[in-house]
Amino acid sequence: MIGTGYVGLVTAACFADLGNTVYCVDKDKKKIDMLNKRKIPIFEPGLEELVKKNFIFGRLKFTTDLSLAIKSSDIIFICVGTPSRKKNKSADLQYVFTAANEIGKFIDKFKIIVTKSTVPVSTGDKIEKIISKKKSRKMFEVVSNPEFLREGEAIRDFKFPDRIIVGSNKKKITKKLESLYEPLIKKGAVFFSTNRRGAELIKYASNAFLATKISFINEIANLCEKTGINIEDVSLGMGLDKRIGSRFLRAGPAYGGSCFPKDTRAITKTADLYKTDLSIIKSVIKSNTKRKIILIDRIKKILSNKLKNKKVAILGVTFKPNTDDMRESSSLLIIPFLDKRGAKITYYDPSGEKKHFYNLRNVSFCKNVREACKNSDLVIIHTEWDEFKTIDFKKISRSKKFKIYDMRNLYSPEKMKNLGFSYYSIGR
After folding, report:
1. Per the confidence metrics, is the pTM higher than 0.85?
2. What is residue 57's three-state secondary structure?
3. What's the number of domains the chain is made of?
4. Cβ neighbour number for residue 239 with a 10 Å cutoff
5. What is the distance between the alpha carbons of residues 55 and 46, in angstroms, rounded to a whole number?
6. Comparing C-alpha atoms, which of 206, 215, 207, 212 is closest to residue 252?
7. Nearest-CA neighbor of 252 among 380, 345, 343, 374?
8. Of the candidates 61, 226, 242, 303, which lies 20 to 30 Å from 93 by C-alpha distance?
9. Do 70 and 101 have their domain in common?
């Protein structure tokens, strides 16, 4: 497993738990040393226990020695990052190609090389060319096997996947990957094989569609707020249609995280390269960017455009619960905006303090909900962590009645009104 980031570490631990011997390789010696001490560098429920268990049994090994790992393995997974390029927002494949180049140096017998990272169409072809410069084509085969792991639910997603996608240009190799995943297939996972380019596109197309559903329902929520309709009724009514489904139809902040933002941008860049118009996905990207501005405008309106010296508490700053991932979170725009306009911000997140706000003058981290909300003018629920679903606001607000902006619709407007709060939510 080349790369011990989110995908690499979760995938490695899960494969080891299925009885395989897995080598995890990373150039970052500090990270490898940490993992060898059974300390986990990321926040993911259940991962620490899984890593410790399989490390103790000797099935999970951590090393900086790529040569050792490659020579000791039959299948090599590339699990490195593919972030957006700063200039044109296309997928930055430098880490993938570096890994391919290194693999080519150390192959000593036939290897199956699997791209787990999310990569644009034809990346497998390029990996093949890179390795071919160093080793005969008879020595390896390149396969696409995209991951579909949700942060906060990654282990469950691996063990009970909706589907396993394998893209290979050779049936013999597909069979070997099918054999690797056999324990999951026996439990009901659908194994779907296609060619390599097909698998690469399936991942991007899937993420772009889910991002579209989120942006769609957020726009409908805007209309609901203008027309006095409850967005939750609309979402439920739509979701009952089996052609649509209920998942990803919850209105809230803009989508964020490690996948949807970069993957929607990357697929449009691929389309531009092949001179194909993906106007729907381009509109989704614009809508998602605008979503953050709409949330800020709502905050301003709630506070009557008087932000200076207002005390604002933010509950949750990660892009979703059960993860410490801050990438593309709406809070990264909201909090600096409030800080710049003189508001005093306190925040609490169960995953801990965030370096992203260290340099902001009026922003401070609190250790719990009560501390964050104390003497606040406005409390914003940004992330739907479980502990935010049962807050006793009446008890917390005894000294001062604050307004509440619930961006996740965790509470009933009627109940909050009866408690005497000025309560605002999304699309209701």
Report:
1. yes
2. coil
3. 3
4. 16
5. 14
6. 215
7. 380
8. 61
9. yes
CB atoms closer than 10 angstroms to residue 220: 17
Record the tokens describing residue 361, joined without a space.
Answer: 């003058």
pLDDT, position 312: 98
Question: Of 81, 90, 148, 79, which Cα lies nearest the Cα of 115?
Answer: 79
Q: Are 173 and 226 in contact (CB under 8 A)?
A: no
One domain, residues 67 and 124: yes
CATH of residue 255's domain is: 1.10.1040.10
Instruction: Give residue 199's region: left, alpha or beta (phi > 0; psi -120 to 50).
Output: alpha
Q: What is the pLDDT of residue 400?
A: 76
Helix/strand/coil percent split, the chain, to 5: 45, 15, 40
244 within some domain: yes
Instruction: Indicate the angle between helix axes 196-227 and 279-302, nearest 10 degrees.
Output: 40
For residue 169, the domain's CATH number is: 3.40.50.720
Give the residue from 151, 203, 311, 321 showing the smallest Cα distance to 253. Answer: 321
Q: Is residue 23 part of a domain?
A: yes
Supply the pLDDT for residue 398. 81
Annotated catalytic residue 259: yes
Q: Which residues of the chain have pLDDT under 70?
A: 399
Give the residue numbers spanning the domain of 224: 204-289
Question: Which among 24, 79, 224, 259 is annotated as catalytic?
Answer: 259
Do both 263 and 361 map to the same domain?
Answer: no
Q: What is the pLDDT of residue 295?
A: 98
